[in-house]
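User: Run a structure prediction on this.
Assistant: Running it now.
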Amino acid sequence: MKKLFVLLLCILISIVFITSCSKNASIREKSAEEEQEITKEKVVVACWGNQMLDTYTSYLCEKFPQVEFEFVLATNSTDYYRFRQDHDDMPDILTVRRFALKDAVLLKDYLYDLSNTELASKYYGSYLDSYTYDDGSVNWLPTCAEVDGFIINKTLFDENNIPIPTDYSSFIASCEAFDERGIRSYVSDFAADYTCMEVLQGVSIPVLQSMEGRKWRVQYESGMTNQLSKEVWLPVFENFFDFVEKVGLGKEDANYPNRTPKDMFSQGKAAMYRGTGADVITFPGRGNDEVLLMPYYGSTSNDNWYLTYPTFQIAASNKGMDDPKREKLILDIMDAMVNQQGQDHISYGKNMVPYRKDVTLELMPEMDNIKPYINLNKLYIRLASNEMFRISKDVVQMILKGEVKTPEEALDAFNMELAGEEPGKEIVAHIDTYYSNDFSPEYGNQAASAIANTMRSISGVDFVFMQSCYVASDIYSGYYSQKDLSYIAKNDGGWPGYVELTGDQLYTLVEATLSMTGNRGAVCNDSTLYVSSGFEMDITKKDGKYTLNALTVNGIELDKDKKYSLIIYGDRDWYMTEVMNKIGITSVDTNGPKAEEYLTECLVNQARQLEASSKYITLR
């Protein structure tokens, strides 16, 4: 019996020892995993728009597993980076679509010089010249070219026996023919500043590309003049007035938002609209229609041009680049952003033109007709300074509304605004409390939480659900101008969607969002997780994937049968459409205020502070 007791005791000790070793090994393994997370190099990438959330950000995460990326959706303007630099908070990698050397020069001292890097050497010299300063330095590099022109429904032309235009006169003839048949010939979203600017320039590209036009542009970009040349720009306004009159544009067109022309085109109610290769993919007519991207028409077919612009430019902050190891990492990431693989993730629909020697981008059939223009270099790069966007919209809308009646008046109005002070710079608010935009498992994203809570307070809805990267920076304590406020949460792709849904549908909404891939609302890492206001989320992260455990309201499990009002904030056309289909909701009201407008309402109109942030997430 004693021997048996000793034997059992030995077995028990062995079990305890093995269990203890196993537990200690598990602890050591967990600690190693945690150590790997802790030692990841953090790199902040400011994304110019939510298109980069499609597959591009997840591509970078997969390409560089040793990097902890923080993605923010920046205001698409170099002024946004001036705002960040003013607070000594420049992102590591900068991206912007709206670009002009005139604006970018203000950041020159804070950005890394790429001129002698292997990265810059891979670009065609003619394109690199557009990014080179007088001292030979280069801060910015383009990715690939977005192509802009007139999208036409060839099937609709054929059905009505109307010839495809080949020049400006045949374009006007086709407009008249469609109008006679009760079909809108041409329509565009002139409520958007970019459309105003691009159509104004697009209908006069031969003038802007003339020797006088190029000479004036160099003077303007270098800051030698802040006025439009009458010799160059009076003909531009004359052409635009003629275009407006003969196409039949007016007051109503001045208010058309981005989606209206595309819906009219998709329904066969319009034959043509201004758009890009991306629009050809997203809004391809009535389903089986044949759609083409045609150029801006000139007086002869030899005067036809496509308007182009880089889908975005990249640059790197000087911050931390004195460390050779970090410098190499940043340059490696930038190369991955613009090499063949990176540009394949941008040009997902074969709709763009490369600037690099080692990149080949196949064009889709709808854009085959652009190839001769590429060979002839009939690709005009738009003049896109911040003031060009702003003032083009002001003046084009005045023309459409009949507030300026002659080309001379339009030229004078444009030059008057160029000579004046930029609006929005006066101080309008003070923010007392600082909120960090970094994500932590303990507190989530506190800047995004403060804004989501403010949106819920002002709107009166039960809940807000918003992708946190739509908040583009820390919320700094201090004084703000109206423009500065816009930099915190302004993004063209961010829309509020108002819906009423049950608690059960809210579960489905959050689960569908977390499991989504390849969409502009997809979550690829902690910085792209969603923030919730009015309810809390319990989420588990494993192998880079996120799963929902529970939703609670003030710590009590969400009532799945109760009806709630919700603002969902994110991409309207891609993300909301997909996720709402999964929860059985067919209509979403997207006409409410954007996040920037809530900030103005709270801080300026109501002169109060943002709602405090809250602990909205438990990440296991």
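The CA atoms of residues 137 and 458 lie 48 Å apart.
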